[in-house]
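Training component of the fellowship. As part of building independent skills, the fellow (R.M.) carried out the full modelling exercise for a liganded target. The chosen ligand was zinc ion. The inputs are recorded below so that the supervisory panel can assess the work.
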Amino acid sequence: MRNTKLRRCLALLCLALLLMAGCGMAPASATPAPAASPARMSASPPTELPEEGRSFSVHFIDVGQADAALVECDGHFMLIDGGNRGDSDVIYTVLKKAGADKLDIVVASHAHEDHIGGLPGAFNYATAELTLCPVTDYDSGVFETFKEYAEDRGGGLTVPEAGDMYDLGSAEVEILGLNAGEDTNNTSIVLMIRYGETSFLFTGDAEREAEQALLDSGAELKADVLKLGHHGSDTSTSYPFLREVMPEYAVISVGEGNSYEHPEEGTLSRLRDADCKILRTDLNGDIIISSDGEELTVTTDKTATEEQLLVPGGKSRSIAKPGAGESPEPTPAETEQPQSRETMVWIPKSGSKYHSDPECSNMKDPTQVSLSQAESMGYTPCKKCW
Ligand SMILES: [Zn+2]
Ligand SMILES: [Zn+2]
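Fellow's submitted model of the complex:
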């Protein structure tokens, strides 16, 4: 740090001397000096840029009942999960806005649709050097599509090992564990990102069994930010695990009024006991946490009170609990949901079926439209991929 400041001072001094010398030597001819000075000014900053241009942020993308986060460090990008199939366009837009057309790493935490479904949207905009996934095969059309995209645009699927480290600019990514159980959620890749003195722990949908395996492994789990496992389900974020992580911030990626009632009461009360600051995509919208290596800064789309953040999910909607019927006005939330998370499908130029897989039936130049659009245009679901 001190070195850089010293270097910068020297650089400025040199520049000043050069300018003065320039002026002194050729006061009449204005041309050489201005030509020389901008060149020097642009020549000196690059040595400082790595220090000056350092940046780190994690964008927890609001993808409803799903997971997606874009990590940026010094102009390097890593995408962890991509939401549901219908979130492809959201992911595409976020990457485009960030100018992230080259991703260092794409992480598919595990094979469930709410984590990999929207990754084709990422690969439609960007290429990736490396695509990490706990498995290379999984019996679903969504996985097949994701895998094909990863093979075309993401260097194929790589199964990492616990202890593997990757650089992301000046940040460090460490794989802490994966494939900790039979259940697909417990296959989740768990990783830690460290930037300066700050740290972020991502657990996919890992549940207690996987958390216990992490505790048993002796991995360093302390983190400033924890992306909660399995959308705040009570089956994740156990006391022993939370005690080890002791996060300042607990981020829950969850859909408003979801039918799973995530986040659950037990989880929220454990977070309260651990004195965590809770952030929820259903209440806060997009959440961006940036770090200067020491301090964290949180920006959210929407604000929510501490009280609201402690209310379990799904409760506001009687639709999730048919028969409960105490609330007469859950309809606005109901109609909002499909609009913001419209399912997208592929349609061929000629043909009558819509597809989840753009390469199904060798479609030529398929177009992506919303499911309701496809239906309104008279398309019917493909029996092979839908
Ligand atoms: Zn999930
Ligand atoms: Zn899952």
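The panel noted the following from the submitted structure. Residues 1-6, 9-50, 317-340 have pLDDT under 50 and may be disordered. The pocket of zinc ion (ligand 1) is lined by residues 67, 112, 114-115, 205, 230-231 (CB under 6 Å).
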